[in-house]
Design a protein that fits this description.
- The complex is a heterodimer of chains A (about 400) and B (about 130).
- Chain A has three domains: about 50 residues; about 170 residues, no CATH class; about 110 residues, no CATH class.
- Chain A has 22 helices and no strands.
- Chain B is an alpha/beta fold and about 130 residues long.
- Chain B folds into two domains: about 30 residues; about 90 residues, Cupredoxins -  blue copper proteins (Immunoglobulin-like, Sandwich), CATH 2.60.40.
- Chain B contains one helix and nine strands; from the N terminus they run αβββββββββ.
- The longest helix of chain B has 28 residues.
- The chains are: A mainly alpha (about 400), B alpha/beta (about 130).
- Chains A and B meet through helix 1, helix 3, helix 6 and helix 11 of A and helix 1 of B.
Chain lengths: ~400, ~130
C-alpha cells in the first residue's frame, strides 16, 4: 500500500513536472521576439490583398523588429519575408534592403550621429548591399562633403572589410546616390531633366573624393546615374527614358561619364531585348562597341532579378551558351552575379552553385569555367572567411576548391 | 498523497490561467485606443512627421506643413512609386514654407513618407 502510494505520487509528480516544463517551454518559445514578428509578417499577407500594401506592412514589421530588438533581428525577419512571400522577391529585394537602410539611418544614426556606434551585422550585405545604399544615400544627402565621405568609407572599410568584401566600394556607390539627392534642392525647375546640369556638382564631388581610388570614384559616379535612372522610372524632376531605348539618355555625355551612365541605364535594358540574349548583344554592340560587353552583362544580371522568384533564369541563361566566347563568359558570370545580388539573404551561394551545376553549363567548358570562377570570386562579397572555408569550399573540387580555400589563409 | 496531487494540479491551473491572461494582455490589452479626429494638421519636423500615426475620419482633409527649412514631399507609400494610394501625392517637391492639403476618401491604413528624405515615415488610419 505504502509502495503503491509512493508510486502514484512519483508518477503524478513526474507528469505534472513534465507538463509544467513543457508548457513553460512552449509558452516562452512561442513568445520569443522573432516569432512574434514572424506572426505579424504572416498577418500582412492575410490582411492586405495588394502586393504594395503587403510590402508596406512588412516594412513596418521589420522596422519594429529593428527598433525593438536589433538590426540583425530585423534582417532575420527580412529573410523570412523573402523566403515565404513572392511579392517581396518579384518586386526586387535590393530596393527593399534600401528601405532597411533608411530605417536604421533614421532610428539609430540620427539619434546618435556616430557611425562607429552602430554595429552592422553580416546579414546587412543581403540583396546586393541594398541596406548600405539606403543608409549611405541619406547620410551623404545630409552631409554632401567629399572629405566626410572618404572618412566614413575608410572607417567602414577598416571595420568590416575583412568580412564584407565590398563594403568600401558600396559606400562610395551610396555616396553617389547621396550627392545626387543633395543636389535636387539646389536646382531650379528650368534645369529639370537636364543630366549634365544636374550631375555637374555631384560628379565634381565624386571626382574630388580624397584618397579614393579611380574604382571608388567610378562607383560614386554610378551612384549618381542610378538615382537619375530611378527618377526616370517614376518621372521625377523632369527625367524620363524611353522603355525601348533607355541607353539613349547617355548620348552626348562627356567621355568620363559614359561608363557610369551606360552601367546604370543598362539595368533598364532588358525590356528592349525582351530576354533574347543574341538580340541584346547585337543592340549593345550597335550602341557602343566599347561598352557592349558591360551593357550585356548588366542587362543579364537585371533579368535574373526578374526571374529569380520562379527560377526561370535557368531557362533564360541557356541563351548565354549561344553567344560568341567573350560575351558568353560574361553572360554566364552575370547570371551568377545576379543570383548572388538577388538571392536568398545569407544563402545566396546555393542558387549560384546550383546554376553552375546545370547540364548545359557543365557540358560547355567555357561556360563552366566562367561560372565557377564567378561563383568563387563573389564569395568574399557576402560571407566571412570562416563561413566560406567551413561551409562553401567543401562543396567544390579542383581549382575552384583551391581558390576558395585561399580565402581562409 | 492525494492532497499533494490536488495542490499540484491547482498550481498548474493557476499557472496556466496566468499565462493565458498574460497572452491576452500582450495580444489585445496593450493596444492603445486611438483618438478619432475630424481635422488634422501634420507637420514634418527635423525629428519626423508629427503626429506620426494619427487616426482620422473618412473625408478628413489633412494639411501638411514643414519646419525643417528644406523642401519636402509628403506622399503615399511605397517609395518611390507612391502607388498604394496614388492620389495622395503632390507630384512635385513642396517649398519649405508651402502647405499642401489632401482629403482622404478611402478607408484604410495609409503609409506615407517624405519622397525627398524617405527615412521620414508615418501611417494614417482612416476610419468610417
Amino acid at each position: 500500500m505504502l509502495w503503491n502510494n509512493r508510486k502514484s505520487f512519483l508518477v503524478a509528480s513526474c507528469l505534472i513536472g513534465v507538463a509544467v516544463i513543457g508548457g513553460l517551454f512552449y509558452f516562452f518559445l512561442s513568445r520569443s521576439p522573432l516569432s512574434e514578428y514572424i506572426k505579424k509578417a504572416d498577418a500582412c499577407a492575410v490582411q492586405f490583398a495588394q502586393a504594395e500594401e503587403q510590402i508596406g506592412c512588412w516594412y513596418r514589421v521589420i522596422e519594429e523588429a529593428i527598433n525593438t530588438e536589433s538590426i540583425d533581428d530585423g534582417m532575420k525577419v527580412f529573410s523570412y519575408v523573402y523566403e515565404n512571400f513572392t511579392p517581396f522577391i518579384e518586386s526586387g529585394c535590393h530596393r527593399h534592403a534600401h528601405k532597411i537602410g533608411d530605417i536604421v539611418y533614421y532610428g539609430q544614426y540620427l539619434a546618435n550621429p556616430d557611425i562607429d556606434a552602430i554595429d552592422f551585422p553580416q546579414s546587412t550585405t543581403a540583396c546586393g548591399y541594398g541596406f548600405y545604399h539606403g543608409f549611405l544615400e541619406h547620410l551623404v544627402q545630409d552631409n554632401p562633403d567629399s572629405a566626410f565621405v572618404t572618412d566614413v568609407c575608410t572607417t567602414l572599410g577598416k571595420k568590416y572589410g575583412a568580412t564584407m568584401g565590398d563594403i568600401q566600394l558600396t559606400c562610395y556607390h551610396g555616396a553617389g546616390h547621396g550627392f545626387m539627392l543633395a543636389e535636387i534642392e539646389k536646382q531650379e525647375k528650368q534645369y529639370w531633366g537636364n543630366i549634365p546640369v544636374f550631375s555637374k556638382r555631384p560628379v565634381e564631388l565624386c571626382n574630388g573624393l580624397p584618397e579614393a581610388r579611380e574604382g571608388d570614384r567610378e562607383e560614386c559616379r554610378q551612384g549618381i546615374f542610378n538615382v537619375i535612372m530611378e527618377w526616370g522610372e517614376v518621372k521625377n524632376y523632369g527625367f524620363s527614358y524611353e522603355k525601348e531605348a533607355p541607353l539613349a539618355v547617355c548620348h552626348g555625355l562627356s567621355a568620363g561619364l559614359l561608363h557610369a551612365c551606360y552601367y546604370e541605364a543598362a539595368q533598364k535594358f532588358d525590356g528592349v531585348a525582351q530576354k533574347d540574349l543574341a538580340r541584346a548583344w547585337r543592340i549593345a554592340q550597335a550602341e557602343s562597341p566599347e561598352h557592349a560587353l558591360m551593357i550585356l552583362n548588366v542587362a543579364v544580371a537585371g533579368v535574373v532579378q526578374q526571374t529569380i522568384a520562379d527560377d526561370s533564369y535557368a531557362a533564360f541563361g541557356k541563351g548565354c551558351t549561344t553567344l560568341p566566347t567573350g560575351p558568353k563568359s560574361g553572360c554566364i558570370e552575370s547570371i551568377v552575379n545576379g543570383l548572388y545580388e538577388h538571392g536568398a539573404p545569407t544563402e545566396e551561394f546555393k542558387r549560384a552553385l546550383a546554376f553552375c551545376q546545370l547540364d548545359y553549363v557543365q557540358n560547355d567548358p567555357d561556360a563552366s569555367e566562367a561560372c565557377m570562377r564567378a561563383f568563387v570570386q563573389r564569395l568574399p562579397r557576402f560571407y566571412t572567411p570562416d563561413r566560406i572555408v567551413g561551409e562553401v569550399c567543401p562543396l567544390l573540387e579542383g581549382k575552384p576548391r583551391e581558390t576558395c580555400d585561399a580565402f581562409g589563409e | 498523497m492525494r492532497w499533494i496531487i490536488a495542490v499540484s494540479l491547482a498550481a498548474l491551473c493557476i499557472l496556466g490561467l496566468g499565462l493565458w491572461l498574460l497572452d491576452q494582455l500582450n495580444n489585445h490589452g496593450a493596444t492603445p485606443v486611438p483618438v478619432v479626429q475630424d481635422t488634422l494638421s501634420i507637420v514634418l519636423t527635423p525629428d519626423g512627421f508629427v503626429p506620426k500615426e494619427p487616426t482620422i475620419q473618412l473625408g478628413t482633409t489633412v494639411t501638411f506643413s514643414n519646419t525643417t527649412g528644406r523642401e519636402y514631399w509628403p506622399a503615399s507609400d511605397l517609395h518611390p512609386s507612391h502607388a498604394i494610394y496614388s492620389a495622395f501625392d503632390p507630384a512635385r517637391p513642396l517649398q519649405p514654407d508651402e502647405m499642401w492639403a489632401f482629403t482622404f476618401e478611402k478607408v484604410g491604413s495609409w503609409g506615407l513618407h517624405d519622397h525627398i528624405r524617405s527615412y521620414y515615415t508615418g501611417l494614417i488610419h482612416v476610419v468610417e
